[in-house]
Amino acid sequence: MKNFNTNNWILAGLLVSITFASALYFWKTPDSWESMDGFAAGNSRIQATAVDIATKSGGRIEEITAAEGEWVKAGQLLVKMDAEEIEADQHVSEANLHRVREGKRYAQAIVIQRESELTLAKKDLLRIQELVEGGSASKQLLDQHQARLYSSEAGLQAARVRVSEAQAAIEAAIAQVGKIKVRLKDSLLVSPRDGRVLYRLAEPGEILGIGGKVLTIIDLSDVYMTVFLPTQQANQVSIGADARIILDAFPDIAVPAKVSFISPRSQFTPRAVETRTEREKLMFRIKVKIDPELLKRYAEHVKTGVPGMVYVQLDPNIPWPDDLPPLLSLDETLE
Question: What residues have CB less than 8 Å from 117, skipping those under 6 apart?
């Protein structure tokens, strides 16, 4: 009986020790302090701003210079659309511009001709007036030369109007040439920013409509994770608050981040919340962004979709737990 009681006490002591050790272990892991006052936590996946490379006008793809997973620079040529028809339109518009410019020169020459005719008409009228005063010419002849003067003046005015019309035609033709050049430029699709090609959605030879997507690029200078926090915690989060990201791929390193967005609207709840219990279920979207300089240093390791945990500091006066993995710095090397 004594031995039995002794064994029971030994077994009970072992169970207590195991329970205490287990509690101590879980208390020291990040999953335990996520519920501590001053901190909030949630699981999420790495996301990045995605940009679609799409056509501005419909056409056939002539060439794609980038493959999936390839790094591209801002301004780099990615896609070349077939521009044969546009180039033909350019030749037509340039020829039209040349024609209207020549038309202006012709109109200007007509103005010079009409000015000469008006000058001659004025001189003839003066001579006829002298002859009429001297009785050597009839009044009818004077009227004829007077009408000729008025006709010359009208002809000059009409010639000057044609010059103005020719100038307007030139400006319209120049605008048309510029429009064709814009279309030619739009046939060359370039990268709007540095990034990595995520998807190649079309291939050379395919015909796409207006806005047809060819490539999708992710901007790895804008990488973030999104978590949803309940109302009580969301009210304590501020823009710029410190955050830590622990990825499943690198569980021994904490990536420093900052809160960059707090949704002004709740989610996952009915539109009309009437009771206190329902109000407590409100969840707010929080966006935590990684430092762009850090992303630039480890760009080769950044991959969207990688799962992990996000920890947000609600109270800046409460220090981060000591058992948190060390922060990733610009000098470290990831393996």
Answer: 152, 155, 156
State how far the Cα of 129 lies from the Cα of 144, in Å rounded to an integer. 11
Query: Contact at 8 Å (CB) between 53 and 191?
Result: yes
Q: b/e per residue, 245-266, with b = 16+ CB within 10 A?
A: bbbeebeebbbebbbbebeeeb
Chain segment 115-135, per-residue pLDDT in tens: 999 999 899 888 888 888 887
Q: Which residues contact 40 (CB under 8 A, 6 or more apart)?
A: 34, 227, 229, 233, 236, 237, 311, 312, 314
Taking the C-alpha atoms of residue 131 and residue 141, their distance in angstroms, rounded to an integer, is 10
Q: How far apart are CA 156 and CA 21, in angstroms?
A: 108
Give the tens place of pLDDT for each residue, 196-208: 999 999 999 999 9
Q: How far apart are the C-alpha atoms of 33 and 14, rounded to whole Å? A: 26
| Domains in the chain, CATH or no CATH each | 51-83+188-213 (2.40.50.100), 84-185 (1.10.287.620)
Amino acid code (one letter) for 206 = E
The structure tokens 């090397």 sit at: 333
Structure tokens at 246: 């622990």
Question: Which neighbouring-strand residues pair with 193?
Answer: none
Calculate the alpha carbon distances from 306 to 36, 147, 199, 223, 254 in Å. 26, 92, 17, 12, 14
Please check whether residue 245 is in contact with residue 254, taking contact to mean a CB–CB distance below 8 angstroms: yes
Q: Which residues have CB under 8 Å from 223's CB, separation 6+?
A: 46, 47, 48, 289, 290, 295, 302, 304
Is 8 within 8 Å of 194 (Cβ atoms)? Answer: no
pTM of the model as a whole: 0.69
- What is the phi-psi region of residue 205: left when phi exceeds 0, alpha when psi lies from -120 to 50, beta otherwise? left
